[in-house]
Amino acid sequence: MASRLRARPLALFASLSLAVLAACTPASPGTTSAPATGAQPTNGASGSLTVYSGRSESLVAPLIERFRTETGIDVQVKYGDTAELASTILEEGDASPADVFFAQDAGALGALADEGRLAALPPDLLERVDSRFRSPDGVWVGVSGRARVAAYNPDLVGETELPSSILEFTDPKWKGRLGWAPTNGSFQAFVSALRVLEGDDAARAWLEGIQANEPRVYEGNDPALSAVAAGEVHVAFINHYYLMRRLAEEAEISARNHFFLAGDPGALVNVAGAGILTTADQADAARTFIEYLLNDESQGYFAEETFEYPLVPGIPADSRLVPLEDIESPDIDLSDLSDLEGTLALLREAGVL
Amino acid sequence: MSSIRVPFGSPIRRLHGVGGSRAAVGRTPWLLVALGLAVALLSLLPVAYLAIRAVGTDADALAFVLRPRTLGVVAQTVLLAVLVGLGSVLVGLPVAWLTTRARVPGRRLWSVLTVVPLAVPSFVTGFAFISAFGPRGALQSLLEPLGVERLPAIYGLPGAVLVLVLATYPYVVLSVRAGLLSEDRSLEDAARTLGDEPRSIVRRITIPMLRPAIAAGAMLAVLYAVSDFGAVSLLQFDSLSRAIYVQYRAAFDRSLAAVLALLLVALTLLLTLGEARLRARARVTSGRPPRHPVEPIELGPWRWPALAFLGTVVGLALVLPAGTIAFWSLRGIAQGERRDLLGAAGLETLLVGGGAALAAAALALPIGLLLARHPFTLAGLVERATYVGFALPGVVVALAVVFLATSLVPAIYQTLFLLVGAYSIRFLPQALGAVRASLLRVGFRAEEAGRTLGDGAARAFWRITLPILRPALLSGAALVFLTVVKELPMALILAPIGFETLATQIWGAASEGFYARAATPAAVLLVLSAASVALLLRDERNAR
């Protein structure tokens, strides 16, 4: 008797879990989806489009929902970290269920392209954006852009004190006042751009100059922005939209964006982009999807909801931003991995990574 | 031949240094051995994957990986592991003792609150710490009127150790609680009648008795510390785990990441050797189920420092992160942030966590029996193998599972079955530690007695040993549950498409800087975890 009483909570826990299992399994969209059906690298059974999105759900879910209703295409999205999803696709090999890879940065698309995993896109899709913002081989296309800026704390730095070129931050007067995120993809793309534009020696000199100013290292752009707002550092090199998003949650924040002059290596614009896998079994739907991301409405969505730059000409960015045409981003291949490896080597040499 | 060395009423002196109390059963149960080897094999699959990937590394890359700087990172990782292990015992042991053996006001509540921090994702704790104790954080602004312009930086080793100790001390608490609760009063009574002071009872009986449980808990803390990425990255501490992530994230270099991960595997094996030696030093068995649980003692005036201690631990490990979450939430509401519906994420989290907890407990029972009672040649291998998966960063295990599943068993790829299975194997050490410690403590005599009274082996086990193991099984299941509900990389990579846990929702929002949106799932995660802990502890009490 006593032991029966004792057994109850455990049994309750067990049966609850089982009940939840029973209740959830059929309802959960994922479990009925294709990969479970077997060895075929397809998801043909349900005929749905599978997107691996390194862009977070909070950014793109409304857009995907809109795509679903407007086109009637059944789309399944796997969200995750861009680099981890790229690695996942590489590990999956030919069995990958993914049709489209929607990446946060071009480097990850380049990693897939290097392994021959991305299929050529139709020229009419590619040509919707400027050549700076798409793959030179025509296997991926940029969808939205983000500019590199210096976020600064206006209580600690006067606007006039800020240089028009990022190169001038090596000045000793910035000692102890800088923050950066050297493991961040956007930062590394900037260093690659610096190497292409000014040469390896200049890039090394810049990195060493900044190192001499004892910058604080942050894991990402957002922690760096927080540090600026908290006055932990005075200036941090980040992407432009983190401030805009913070402003949407917090009216008062002690941080502003400083844009670099046109043509300066600091004025780099990175892109989030998409490509179609060579193993895609829904290639038509995949093209429709990428086309959808580049239509006026979606481009407007990126401007208004994620505060990024629309890449299709004619769609205005947020009015608080310097227009994309005025930034004159340096023209380099944003997905060039061989270049990225050189950049990583340089970062290691300079003791940054 | 059973070898219980401590019959009741024998001189307590004999408790010390009594070794070899493993109760060996005559025949080797081949079914258990086969199961153990199968689990070991599954646990080692990620290592096989790493070996495949590492083969592709060219010599230059290898030279890069094995340069002095990497060795420095290895040394730092060892330092972090050892400090977190020690810290988790220093915090966890008193917490476990106070919440089981002392009359602290609100003991039941403290029991729950001191365990819940296990479910707080370490990146949330790390973030909360930086916001609160960063050089220009909340604490500094409070102290500003006193002329404090900048606090010493918490970045680096001190911050990483602090955050990881707060994330892992519950391992020691849960493991040791099970030990304390299954101890029989008669041993301590015997010591008391022989004139031992309470303090020396703790030293001579309680601690030696708990040694396997303490070692098991500290080992989990150590393995967690070397696998963690969230806290070390936020607090800017270069551990091996962070170096592995850099290879994946910045360089897309799976080969170099694999070489570094193999280095981590080797390191883990060294660390587990240390634990095995610690555990082997002394072992005590009471030889029968605790018919007379130890009564909690009165603390008298000592209850105030005790309360202050518990309050500080809970304040830092739970209230601070929870407060940060509440702050995000309020700030979001003030800015008109829309309340996102949680959808099924809560239920799905419960489902995966519950499934993995049940599966891990179900595996821990036979394997714990195997390890505790049937020391066979390969037992050491089985045990070490289970540790390896837990010590590897989640992303490494997840990618290994992707590779192996798509090439060997594509039918189960991206199914819930695979995710829950991978969790139960990876987190098996958490359930195993408590079960094994409990079996070593309990010994074999009572079950043997049951058999001589005519019970069959299975029936004797079911009637006698299983009830004694209940607290250990429950705490093991609780550990697995709490770890799974906050786990991120495996959930992101291995879950079926469209399947979301609370942790993936928190990450999805917070990684983009949408903290207000992250707040709701984070709060639900904490409430869910607290409720589960409360349910399990209630059962623990009933089981007494």
Shape of chain B: globular
Main interface by residue count: A-B, 82 and 75 residues
* Strand content range of chain B: under 5%
Extract low-pLDDT stretches of chain A.
1-10, 16-45
The first-to-last residue Cα distance of chain B is 29 Å
Could you name the ranges of chain B where pLDDT drops below 50 across 5 or more consecutive residues?
A: 1-25
Topology order of chain B in helix (H) and strand (E) letters: HHHHHHHHHHHHHHHHHHHHHHH
| Secondary-structure element string of chain A | HEHEHEHEHEEHHEHEHEEHHEHH
Average per-residue pLDDT of chain B, rounded, comes to 81
Radius of gyration of chain A: 23 Å
Q: How many β-strands of chain A, per DSSP?
A: 11
Tell me the Rg of chain B in angstroms.
23 Å
The secondary-structure class of chain B comes to mainly alpha
Helix content of chain B: over 70%
DSSP strand (E) fraction of chain A?
Answer: 15-25%
Oligomer: heterodimer
Number of helices of chain B: 23
The gross shape of chain A turns out to be globular
Mean model confidence by pLDDT of chain A: 84
Largest sheet of chain A: 11 strands, mixed
Account of the 3D structure:
The complex is a heterodimer of chains A (353) and B (544). Chain A has helices at 2-27, 57-71, 82-92, 106-114, 123-126, 185-198, 200-212, 221-229, 241-249, 283-293, 296-305, 324-327, 337-349, and strands spanning 49-53, 75-79, 100-103, 118-119, 140-152, 178-180, 216-217, 235-239, 256-258, 269-277, 309-310. Chain A is α/β, with parallel strands linked by helices and 353 residues long. Chain B has 544 residues and is mainly alpha-helical. Chain B contains 23 helices and no strands. Chain B has helices spanning 30-55, 59-65, 68-101, 107-113, 122-133, 138-143, 157-181, 185-193, 198-227, 230-234, 240-251, 254-280, 303-334, 345-373, 379-391, 394-408, 416-426, 428-442, 445-452, 457-486, 489-494, 502-510, 515-543. The chains are: A alpha/beta (353), B mainly alpha (544). Chains A and B meet through α1, α2, β2, α3 and α4 of A and α5, α11, α14, α16 and α20 of B.
